[in-house]
Amino acid sequence: MRPFLAALGLCLALAAPAGADGLTDMTDAEKAAFGEAVRAYLLENPQVLVEAMTILQDRQAEADALADDELVAQNASLIFDDGVSWVGGNPEGDITVVEFMDYRCGYCKKAFAEVEDLVASDGNIRFILKEFPILGEESIITSRFAVAVQQLHGAEAYKAVHDQLMELRGAPDEATLSRMATDLGLDPAPILTRMGSDDVTAVIAANHALADTLSIAGTPTFVMGGTLLRGYVPLDAMKQMVADARAAN
């Protein structure tokens, strides 16, 4: 109902008599006549309300985008250079793409291969992953496992685990995670112990705090250049957004 009322208000503002500062400047008789005229016009031309609502939605989208751009600018150091998050692609790339992701998120899994394609085919993208588990206990377990691997074994091992967790379809129980570590040539025992450490907790907590600041509530969420992108976007659209970000620089 609120968008409808706002659109109606926009129609009334556009239709107000010339020279009037508002309905309060009109007499009661003028207000009644004006109201009847507007009602009759809208009944005969209901598409005007649709047009007004479209204008209102476009204005709101523009305002939201500007607010997101400001949030990115204000938190750039934490987004792009926190010193903790995994950095891949081209470290010297001219555009940075950041993904807030959850291993149990279906859309993150759907986007996984496309994001990999985007980064690999472009060759000039600096790519950052931020662990953002929000879909329950299994999400937390998988993120803790990935962060523990990174802290103990470095970036290459982290990316290998990340890729496998993105393709994991079963439950991330201890046996599954231990087998995953073993298959990568890693000793699972120290990793499983590290998962519960304060150091791992601090990384995930910092990502949640940053997400709260950026009003991020879902995954995947991307930052492309200075633009915040909420939700899954197909590969071709992501390529266009990267091109737009380059053109804006």
List the helices and strands and how they pair.
Elements: H1 2-15, H2 28-44, H3 47-74, H4 76-80, E1 86-89, E2 95-101, H5 106-122, E3 125-131, H6 137-153, H7 155-167, H8 174-183, H9 188-194, H10 198-213, E4 221-224, E5 227-230, H11 235-248
Parallel strand pairs: 2-3
Antiparallel strand pairs: 1-3, 2-4, 4-5
Helix pairs in contact: 1-3, 6-7, 6-9, 6-10, 8-9
Describe this entry's structure for a reader.
- This protein is an alpha+beta fold and 249 residues long.
- It folds into two domains: 2-66, no CATH class; 76-248, Glutaredoxin (3-Layer(aba) Sandwich).
- Helices cover 63% and strands 10% of the residues.
- The protein contains eleven helices and five strands.
- The chain has helices at 2-15, 28-44, 47-74, 76-80, 106-122, 137-153, 155-167, 174-183, 188-194, 198-213, 235-248, and strands at 86-89, 95-101, 125-131, 221-224, 227-230.
- The chain has a five-stranded mixed β-sheet, with helices on both faces.
- β4 and β5 (227-230) form a beta hairpin.
- The chain starts with a helix and ends with a helix.
